[in-house]
Amino acid sequence: EQSELLLYQNMLYREAEMHEQSLKHLDENQKYILDKLKLEESRANAYLMLNQKDKATKIYEELLERNPDNI
Questions:
Q1: Considering all CA atoms of the chain, what is the largest pairwise distance in Å, rounded to the nearest integer?
Q2: pTM for this model (two decimals)
Q3: Cβ neighbours of residue 37 under 8 Å, at least 6 residues apart?
Q4: Which residues lie below 8 Å from residue 62, measured CB to CB, with a gap of 6+?
């Protein structure tokens, strides 16, 4: 499925420490990615790796509001 392929490609960007490219990839493909939870987790992780902790924290807080049992 295209959605899974896009998430896999993004994982490769993150593993290669290409975090800016990871964010760009997520932004460009977000409408095709069906797993919105994984999309936001990936985005938060990229922001964290780019030392943009405020943006990462905001996303993580939103994710916890959606699912407080997912810690």
A1: 33
A2: 0.88
A3: 63, 66, 67
A4: 40
Q: Yes or no: say if 10 and 26 are a contact pair by the CB < 8 Å rule.
A: yes
pLDDT tens by residue, 21-45: 999 999 999 999 999 999 999 999 9
Distance, in Å, from the CA atom of 20 to the CA atom of 28, rounded to the nearest integer, reads 12
Residue type at 29? N
Q: Is 13 helix (H, G, I), strand (E, B) or coil?
A: helix
d(CA 18, CA 13): 5
Distance separating alpha carbons of residues 31 and 65, to the nearest angstrom = 22
